Amino acid sequence: MKIESLSQANIRTYLDYLRAAMAEEPEMMTAERVDEGLILENLPSTTSLVAVEGGQVIGRLEYHFYSCLQDGCRMAYVNWVYVAKAHRHRGVAQALFREFEAVCRQNRIDQYYLIQARNPGAASFYGAFQNAESTEQPILRKNL
Q1: Residue among 14, 7, 81 at smallest CA distance from 46
Q2: Which end of the chain is more exposed for a tag (fewer CB within 10 A), N or C?
Q3: Cα separations (Å) of 46 from 42, 53, 57, 63?
Q4: Is the pLDDT assigned to residue 77 strictly greater than 80?
């Protein structure tokens, strides 16, 4: 398995992975269908790492960097983590996070955060993180 940045070079394989994930676990997805045109349009403005095995994407982690003006804290937000069902419990998500943390260090990121999924597999996964804490935070979300 290798970890790569999502790009034009592997987008077709990623789209195959996404279609399979949406068919297998639609309840885990944040979209109702694969909109290939929208994904291709948004690719240049997003940052994702993909786990690739045997020429196929088997997992993805999407993230965004930003800074706080007042105190200069440089942060990252992990927007999405998903590993194909057949490849879970094999270290794929851990490998994605190791590479993500390396990218964060290269970019002088001070901390990262994510909104945890609420399922037994996710709880077990996040519980294994070292030097991290889980908290309950209220979230305001407004659609525009």
Answers
A1: 7
A2: C
A3: 7, 22, 17, 8
A4: yes
